């Protein structure tokens, strides 16, 4: 049974990037630019209920950077996370392919990765693995270098392994047929 599963999982996306933690000052300038953009936009977050500001920045394949911050709403459902805000801005300008992203928020002892909904939203546009840099926010962009804090270097395929894609891209029918013998059409 395990051999059948391994063969069928071969068609699903797998992480091409090995996760690691690096210090901010050890990153290349292009990555620092992305983190700075996410840290900068975070100050515009509208968070009267949680008081938890998040900033995100996505680089398109063409090299443009789109930023977003979280925007809360009293009804909660209309709230939008920083990552989805940035993606929506890029998509509304005609960009749907991203090479990397940065997410910043502040929690004293931990880094804050994208929530599950944001992971799925990023996966929607991940025909290839998207590298994601996650670090703690600072009050001022200049403090990023001064503090030289840890940056989790990961990817969407690491954060959401075997993530759901659209029905045409997913190749799950053989898994269902072979493992459960359902012979679905």
UniProtKB/TrEMBL annotation:
Names of the cofactor(s) = Zn(2+)
Q: Which GO terms describe its molecular function?
A: cytidine deaminase activity; identical protein binding; zinc ion binding
Among Pfam families, the record links this protein to: dCMP_cyt_deam_1 (PF00383)
Q: Which domain of life is it from?
A: Eukaryota
The reactions it catalyses are:
2'-deoxycytidine + H2O + H(+) = 2'-deoxyuridine + NH4(+); cytidine + H2O + H(+) = uridine + NH4(+)
Q: Which GO terms describe its biological process?
A: nucleobase-containing small molecule metabolic process; pyrimidine-containing compound metabolic process
Which keywords appear in this protein's UniProt record, sorted alphabetically?
Hydrolase, Metal-binding, Zinc
Q: What is its EC number?
A: 3.5.4.5
Give all residue intervals belonging to the CMP/dCMP-type deaminase domain: 29-152
The cross-references to NCBIfam families, in alphabetical order and at most eight, read:
cyt_deam_tetra (TIGR01354), PRK05578.1 (NF004064)
Name this protein carries in UniProt: Cytidine deaminase
């Amino acid at each position: 049974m395990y051999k059948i599963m391994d063969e069928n999982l071969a068609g699903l996306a797998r992480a091409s990037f090995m996760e690691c933690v690096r210090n901010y000052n050890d990153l290349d300038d292009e990555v620092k630019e992305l983190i700075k953009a996410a840290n900068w936009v975070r100050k515009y977050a509208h968070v009267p209920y949680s008081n938890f500001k998040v900033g995100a920045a996505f680089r398109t394949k063409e090299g443009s950077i789109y930023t977003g911050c979280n925007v809360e709403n009293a009804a909660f459902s209309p709230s939008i996370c920083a990552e989805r805000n940035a993606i929506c801005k890029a998509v509304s300008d005609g960009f749907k392919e991203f090479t990397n992203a940065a997410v910043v928020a502040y929690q004293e002892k931990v880094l804050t990765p994208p929530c599950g909904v944001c992971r799925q939203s990023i996966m929607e546009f991940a025909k290839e693995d998207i590298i994601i840099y996650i670090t703690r926010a600072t009050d001022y962009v200049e403090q990023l270098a001064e503090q030289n804090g840890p940056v989790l270097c990961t990817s969407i395929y690491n954060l959401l392994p075997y993530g759901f894609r659209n029905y045409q891209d997913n190749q799950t029918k053989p898994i269902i047929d072979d493992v459960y013998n359902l012979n679905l059409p």
